Amino acid sequence: MRAFFISILVVTIYSCNNNENSDPFQQQVDEDSKTIENYLSSNGLSGNKIGDGIYEVNISGGSGTNVGVDDILEIAFSLRKFDTDEEFYEDTSYIFIPNKGFFLEDVTGNNSGLNASVLAMSAGDISDFYIASPYAFYTSSGTLNGVFINQNQIVIANIELIDSRTEEEQKVYENEIIKNSIFQSALEADSLKSGVYRVTLEEGTGDDSVSTNSSIKADYTGSFLNGDEFDSQSNISFSLGNLIEGWQIGLENLKIGAHVIIFIPSDVAYGADGKISNDGSVSIPSFSTLVFEITIKDIS
């Protein structure tokens, strides 16, 4: 999927200044707001204005407990075009911290409209949010998942707020899904520290063993728990101390020839920030639990 740019908005969406009538950003927000309000009215929909240019149509109410900007939130959401109702993006389990921003996988930029929408929800809510184009793609255009996104496209986001978790609750959650994945795969795994699990497919041999200070040559494949692969390398050399903590834990004491699968929770991987590619797109989303299949070729 080619990267598609979403404007990074530096304005605060709840307090846009409308004193300058020549401000093209605010003019577009005002125009989109009128379009959304007319649509909601003509279709008998009760829309709650949660911010300048953003309207919520609640489908199913939640617990009533509001979320905070530092909470760890899990949502399911889909995005569609306002004018054609074409769906162009979906994620059934996206986990993030609002204060760090809302990022779309393989799409560059930070969508402030989605972030603001989620902050208006409570756990269990399902809502449609009508988002003015300056808080989404604004003047950018291009094709995403086979759907052409035109400039100044109003976006409808269907969002379900699945859960709100603390940092410790997130660790427990990831530990459970790792154990369930191992169980479903009928694998036998050793529990290491910090929630890392290791499945040994083949024992190594020799006198040398991996330590944090080791330089290693290895083959590896990295994937998410759902099996989607994000990286694969052969005969790559690296210093283990420069890698994520989960690798240091998972490879410790292995010998040359060892073939293992390691399951790494996000707090010893890429955590709340995830990993951003050089083009600005998200290669590893926030709070991703990772799986690596690794063969140790050499140790020095």
Would you give an account of this structure?
The chain is of the alpha+beta class and 300 residues long. The chain has 2 domains: 4-165, Chitinase A, domain 3, CATH 3.10.50; 168-299, Chitinase A, domain 3, CATH 3.10.50.40. It is built from 4 helices and 20 strands. It has helices at 24-42, 112-119, 167-184, 245-251; strands at 4-5, 48-51, 54-60, 72-81, 87-96, 107-108, 126-131, 142-144, 147-149, 155-165, 190-191, 197-202, 205-209, 215-224, 229-239, 255-256, 259-264, 275-276, 282-284, 290-299. Strands 2-3-7-10-4-5 form a 6-stranded antiparallel sheet. Strands 11-12-17-20-14-15 form a 6-stranded antiparallel sheet, covered by helices on one side. It has a two-stranded parallel sheet with strand order 1-6. Strand 4 (72-81) and strand 5 (87-96) form a beta hairpin. The longest helix is centred in the first third of the chain and has 19 residues, at 24-42. The chain starts with a strand and ends with a strand. 33% of the residues are buried.
As for the CATH topology of the largest domain, it is Chitinase A, domain 3
N-to-C span:
38 Å
For the secondary structure, the number of strands is: 20
Number of helices: 4
Provide the structure class. Answer: alpha+beta
